[in-house]
Structure formats: C-alpha cells, structure tokens
Fold each of these.
Amino acid sequence: MIEIKDLHVRFGAVHAVRGIGFGVPRGGSFGIVGESGSGKSTVLRALSGLNPDWTGTMKVAGQALTRNRGKDFFRRVQMVFQDPYGSLHPRQTVDRALAEPLIVHGMDDHEKRILRALAEVALPPATRFRFPHQLSGGQRQRVAIARALMAEPEVLLLDEPTSALDVSVQAEVLNLLADLQERRDLTYVLVSHNLAVVAHLCPMVGVMQGGEMVEQVSAADLRAGRTVHPHTTELRRLSTELEEA
C-alpha cells in the first residue's frame, strides 16, 4: 500500500531526512520511532503532502506521489495529529468538525455518517453538539480520529496520536485504533518517541537518528532485545514502558 525509496527532505541547509525507505502492506502498520529532531515527523509530513520539499520516490496503492496532490489522494490518505485540541477549531462543534470533510469531498447522508462515526469511536451522540473545550483529552482525540475517518480513507498517518494523553487513556486510544484497523482494513504509519506505543500497534518498526533510518526491526525482536544498531538498543533501554506493553 505504501512504498518509499530514497526519501530526502531538506529545509535550506538542513538535511532533515537522509535517503530513507520502507514499505507497508495493505492493512498493515509500520512504526517510526526516534528522539526529537530525528526526522520522524518530517517523513510523515512529506508523505501526507504537508511538506512539498522532498525528493525520492513515494507511492500509495501503486500510484507515484508528486508535490501536488489531488482530492483523491486526500480522500484516500488522512492524518491524525499529536494535539487534538490544536487540530480542532475551538469555535466549531464536533458536528461541524465531522461534517467538514463530507462537504469538501461532496459526500451525502451527513446525519447517518456523523452518527456512525461517533459510534465507531465510542462517543455518545450528545458529543455531537459540544465544543472541543467541553471534552476531555481522550474524547478530543477520538473526535480527531472520527474526523479522519469521515472521508473513508484507506491510510491513516498517525503523528504521536497518544503523547498528549494520560497513560490509561493512551491504552484506550491504541485499542480503538487497533479495532478500527481490523474493521476497516486500514493501513497505518505511526510516528512516536515511545517504543511501547509503537510496538503495541506495529509489527515492524523503523528507528531514526539524525535523519537516517538506522534500523528496521520487528516488534517481537524489539521486545526480546534482538537489536543491531546501538541507538535502537539505547532507546529500548530508556523505554521503561516497553516492558509493560
């Protein structure tokens, strides 16, 4: 479903992503971990179309991506951001936030689709007419996920989707994402600094350091400590949560 080869991203003199590559099968998940500044979120922004300054090859469902993406791409590929409060308009109700993608993509049956989306992310119908500040952090992230699903995408790009949440709520959102993936046959690329979060959802993990993907390792090998690159070993050592995953 996703194929990336020799991806480079530069911001002026800064070479933020240095020739990385990976693939994700349809209905599969791939995680990218690394410290702040490693380039992991930059990869996601290039793939999503938010950052047009890249070179290399990126394909989704066999179609080569260019700097300019059409409506079809944005219906097929959606992104969920780190901060649900920042990604939701503070003066728009949940109803408006969920209706907006339907309007943009010319989809009908708004009432039915909105109620179904709320049910899918385990939010009561009354949530529909609330504003973001009236919701908890976990509820806001569920709304953000529901909004990403409105256009019926095939790919979700998840940029630190649980890092702004309490640990107990993190687990709920990760379980929700796992259920949605199975139900909708979604393909995920998940970016996080937390190895436990990535290993929970992704069978394969790419480890980034200084703009390079220094290792690709299975979640099973990661848990067992069967790593090759010293940076992966160090990240695993520092991740106390991994043992609880």
Amino acid sequence: MWEFLKQLTDPNSIIQYGGLWLLLFVIFAETGLLIGFFLPGDNLILLAGILCKAKPELMQVNFFTLVALMSLAAILGNTAGYWFGRSVGEKLYERKDSLIFKQKHLVVTKEYYHKYGGNLTLILARFLPVVRTFAPIIAGVIKIGFVPFMIFNVIGALAWILSLAGIGYFLVQIFPGITNYMGYIFIALIIITAIPVLRAIFKKENKNQN
C-alpha cells in the first residue's frame, strides 16, 4: 500500500507503471475525491503532454485524444465533488481535522469564493493545488446551480488541461532534451502553483491573530 501511495504522488511512476488509465484516475481523484488534494495533478498533466510527444509509446494515444480524455476525467471529478458537497451540506464545516482532511483547506477555498465569486473560482481553482479539490465540494455545499456549475466546470477543465498539456507537448519540439530536466521543472511548477495558496493561508492566519 505504501509503495502504491508513493507511485500515486510521483508523476513518472503513474505514467510508467499505470499508463493512461492510472493517469486518468489520478486526475479524477484529485478533482473529485476529498482525499485527492495531495496528488500531483499539475505535474502529471505537464508530463503527459511531454511524453505524448517525446515517448508516444507510453501514452498510446495522440495529443488531442489525450487532452479529451484528461478533460473528461477532470470534468467528472469535479462533478463527483459537487454532488458529494450537496449530499454532505453544512455538516462538512463541522468535521474535525484528520490525516486527510483539514478545515484550513475549506477556509482557503471559501476565501477564493468570497473574493472572486463562484463562477470564476471554479476556473481559477483548477490551477491551484488543494483549492481545486475543495472548490467543487464547496460549490455543492452552497448549492450553486448545477447548470452554471457544469458550464464553468467544463471551461475550467479545458483551460487547465489544454494549457499544461499543450505547454509540455510544444516544449519538447523547442527543447528536445527537456526530459532530462523534469525534476527541476516539477519543483518550479510546485512552487509557482503553491504561492497563491500559501499567501491565502498566511493572510487568513494573520487576520485571526489580529
């Protein structure tokens, strides 16, 4: 089980050992399951785009099929999160912290809703670790209409998948040796995407102290 969990957090292992189906499951889980916030969605999508061009035998599908499948997984994941939020309702705010659930994640996500509104948050959240897991759940809790939710769910999924996978796919054409520097690229992407979330957490903590 521990080895399996390590593979789920390593983009290279996910694609090398699990192939396309594990890739799709991880995207679904990160965007649809409460426990999915620790999964490496951004790095995984970027790597999928790179390998689709550099090592097509691993992906076994062309770029457009890959984007369509990953987008579908992201859309279905958010939809599952939405219905989970609707079924749990306000009780989620009373849930105690555990290994896989932290109230501070809900607080940070609610801050984005207050600042940007529900529609824009559903798009922005796709690019923010942790927030993208909890955004559809909060949408269900506060009972955003299903039709507007689905519209921005689809827009957000397409923007997220197309941008990251597209960057990876075309980077290989410009820099053929980029696969030798994946570790550095992953670290840079983690830092860039984590900065807005960390700022929101620190800002909320400072408010509470004052």
Amino acid sequence: MGMLTKLFARRFPGIRLTLAQARMGESAEYYLKRTLTLSLMLALGVSLILFLFSRSPFVILAFVPVWALSFLYLLNYANARIARMRREISKEIVFAGRFLIIELESGVPVYRAFQNLSRNYEVVGRYFAEVVERVDLGTPMEEALNEAVQLAPSNDLRRLLWQILNSLKTGSEVAGALNSVFDQIVREQQIMVKEYGRKLNPMAMFYMMMAIIVPSLGTIMLIVLSTFMGIQLNALFFGVLVGLNVVVQLMFLAIIKAQRPPVDI
C-alpha cells in the first residue's frame, strides 16, 4: 500500500495544495492511502454482493471499474469541500469587504482591521484570522498575506488578499484599491443573479411538464386504458407512480438549488 500511495502521490502532484486550500490538515500520502483503502473496501463489498445474487464468477470483472470509479469519486472529496467553502465565501465577501473598507477609511491600521473583521464575519473572517495568527507568531504581514493568497479557496478572496498585498508593497492606499476590486465583484455577482433569473423560466416550464402535467395526465390515461383493456391496477402500482413522481420533484429541486448563484446581495 505504501508504494502504491507514493505512486499516486507523484501522479497527483497538486493534491497537497488542494488539501491545504480545503483546510483538511492531513498529508497527501495519508489522504491517498485512506482513499485507496475505502475504494478497495467498497469495490470488494459490491463484488461480494453481486456474487451472492448472481453466483457467477464473472462478477469479479466488476471489481476494477467499481474500484476505479469509487477511487475517483472519493478523491474528489477535497475539491467538493473547496467548492462548498467557495460558495460560503461568495455569500459573505461583499459585506466583509465593505466592512474592511470602512475600517481602513476610518484610519484603523491594517492589522487591527483584520482582527475586527475576523470577529464580525464567521466565514471570511476565518481566513483573516489566519493572517493575524501568522503575524502574531512573527511572520511579516506581506509574507503572511502572500501565503494566504496561495491557500485561498476562492478567487474573490484571492483577489481581495492580493490587492491588499500589492498595496502594502507599493505603499499605496489600501482602501482606494479595494473599492475597485469590490465594485468588480459586485458587478459579477449581479450578472450571476440575472443569468439565474433567465434560467428559472425554462426550468419552471420543464418542471411543470415533467413533474405535474405528465404524471397527472399519464395516470388518468393509464386508468382509462386499464378500464377498457380489463387490466387491474393495484395499490402497489400507484405507490410506485407516486414514488417516481417524488423522485422527479426532488431531482428538480436539487437542480434548481445547484443552479442558484452563491451570492447574498
């Protein structure tokens, strides 16, 4: 397992940065070893279940594809965690940015402004608290910000930190530079909201067709046809129809929720 883990670690060189951005606090070797172990256990379990039901030795052929698919799926956990963190940051970045600009324009030092932001905003403040902690441990502010830029899971947060770092290096006013960055972030979020509004109309129409009209008319047609053809429809049949309808509606709700932009403006 150790040799295989080292081989996969060389095959996925970006996994270390991904784990650091996901704030998972574990080495790439341990993450890959755990992923390999879980995928092997899942593949063995699926193969055993298939063998018990089919009693055919050919089910062993399913082991490799099941293992490969489960490994890739579990390997993507860190990326899924980063995507969730990115959505959380996008909901708070505008308000946190405005708070930071007001603090700086009021004459509050950058270090103190970071401390105030970390206490008032739970999501975005977490990353500024990391910068404050590095500075407290003796790291220069510019170096701490540069490390935070590399480990930021969100492009918006990365742009914010990079603008602060660039302003500190050049000696320019931080608040003025941040205003232009946040104006751009707000415009991008407004565009995302407008695009989401345009997508809702066809999705709502498709939902009406597939989740309401088709099941209702289809059930009526089945009852009428079964009456003429002498086919008896029992409660189990209607239960299956209701279950399918529930699954379709939940699927549409999940799609609409996934399409919603991660903004709160």
